[in-house]
Specification:
four-stranded mixed sheet, mainly beta, single chain, 99 residues, 60% strand, four-stranded antiparallel sheet
């Protein structure tokens, strides 16, 4: 079980937010400043090469991310994309046995 989360820590509202994981994608749409959106129980495989995209102030932005050092395949937990002004960070938190 994987939850996929996006956190907007930038100074702008984000539009058309999407994480493409191989042939599949999580789409959240609009994400205002300081907001978080979660796609619970993502039903598709998490791929090593991921593309996060969004629109801000009329510009389309795309960040290509390599998850090989972040996500251990087959683990349950939450994959989080955090958008800042000028950069994107991605992290994974494994679910503990009691969750």
């Amino acid at each position: 079980e994987i939850d996929v989360e996006i956190v907007n820590r930038s100074s702008r509202n984000l539009e058309n937010t999407k994480a493409r994981l191989g042939e599949n994608a999580c789409e959240w749409g609009r994400l205002v400043k300081a907001a978080t959106a979660i796609y619970l129980f993502y039903p598709h495989p998490i791929t090593a090469e991921t593309e996060l995209s969004w629109d801000e102030e009329g510009r389309h932005r795309v960040e290509k991310l390599d998850l090989r050092k972040i996500y251990p395949p087959g683990k349950s937990g939450r994959l989080t994309f955090t958008v800042y002004d000028g950069r994107v960070e991605v992290s994974f938190r494994e679910k503990s046995a009691g969750q």
